[in-house]
Amino acid sequence: MNFDVEKIRKDFPALNQEVYGKPLVYFDNAATSQKPRVVIDTLVSYYSGINSNVHRGVHYLSQQATEAFEQTRDLIRDYIHAKSNSEIIITKGATDSINLVANSFGRHFFKPGDEVIISATEHHANIVPWQVICKDTGSKLKVIPTDENGNLNLDSFKGLISHKTKIISVGHISNALGVVNPIREIIRIAHQNNIPVMIDGAQGIVHREVDVQELDCDFYCFSSHKFYGPMGVGILYGREKFLEQMPPYQTGGEMIKSVTFENTTFNELPFKFETGTPNVAGVIGFGAALEYIKKIGMPDIISYEDDLLKYALKKLNNLDYLQIYGNSQERAGVISFNLKDIHPYDAGTIIDKFGIAVRTGNHCAQPVMDFLGTTGTIRASMAFYNTREEVDRLLVAIEKVKEMFG
Questions:
Q1: What sign does the dihedral 357-6-306-321 (CA atoms) show?
Q2: Do the beta carbons of residue 256 and residue 266 sit within 8 Å?
Q3: Which domains does the chain have, with CATH numbers?
Q4: Would residue 134 show up in a list of annotated catalytic residues for this protein?
Q5: Which among 395, 318, 404, 406 has a CA at the least distance from the CA of 358?
Q6: Is it the case that residue 349 has pLDDT exceeding 80?
Q7: In sequence order, what DSSP letters do the residues of 313-367 get, joined into one string?
Q8: Mind listing the pLDDT tens digit for each residue in 279-294?
Q9: Chain-wide mean pLDDT for the chain?
Q10: Which of 115, 203, 335, 336 could bridge to 377 as Cys pair (CB 3.0-4.6 Å)?
Q11: What is the predicted pLDDT for the residue at 294?
């Protein structure tokens, strides 16, 4: 593996700063990643030169903006191996994408008594939209149980499926525990029963290669800002046969073909689901992020990150006063832990004083925390620009916290 992490770190301006007089260690990547210079420069270039709306003008700047915007759609389609651009919907984020499917798919296909299956390790964004649509349609939400390590119980999952099951929606990788879910097996079982599957890939695409045709999923969503691109941009891949049947989630400008006071006809895919002015700069910036990732190479990124995670786990497991959650064989990107008898907020506040950014709380996964019997955890989430030396600094900070609390 030809992977020069020190060279890569120079591409990320935010990493070159001090916090409380110490070099920043950024271990909050599951919340949002830092951005490479090429993404920042792309945003500046758009607003400095093009700064025009898309799909709406014949003038030069509008054509430039539209071309760059649609080139990003091309990049996304190619990156996740979708069949066509019609299957790539630009949204505001993964949460927006899930809401789109819950509302559009749910309102078209659900009827009273129908069922939706999710898992016990989901982010709130893959729980609440389904709860709401189930209440609105008289449907029922079912949950795949997990064990104490975050492994989903596939035997129980099979038992949850019935002729009333209309869709299954699960996360690729748990944002709270870092467990990689067996999505291929879930999709296989679901399709044996003619049930479509949505995958929340907000953490998945960051740490694993994604080929939607190979996965054979029906929907897959993710956010730009967790994948080294700008905030406010999300992607929804949807199988065309479902997208064609689903009504628009939101309505207004851009997503129409014709409007009279008596009737409206909607645009063709993918524009049917893209209402109003999109985050043009952000989308183009995400295109730059994808190009950057492709240049480094996702296989090398995965190999480096997995090695760094193993190093961190080995070090942390040596601390007998530390409890690590999500001890699954298949995990990526995240270590969720607590110092015994020390509140995670207190520990996280002290760790911050060492210039180390970690996340504390329930990580928008309160049912997971309730199941584990804790109010929250400390989450250290890693990216390919993190180093072993930064892991060592985290250990020093953790040991200081233990000393302070006795």
A1: negative
A2: yes
A3: 5-30+297-405 (3.90.1150.10), 40-294 (3.40.640.10)
A4: no
A5: 395
A6: yes
A7: HHHHTT-TTEEEE---SSB-SEEEEEETTS-HHHHHHHHHTTTEE-EEE-TT-HH
A8: 999 999 999 999 999 9
A9: 96
A10: 336
A11: 97
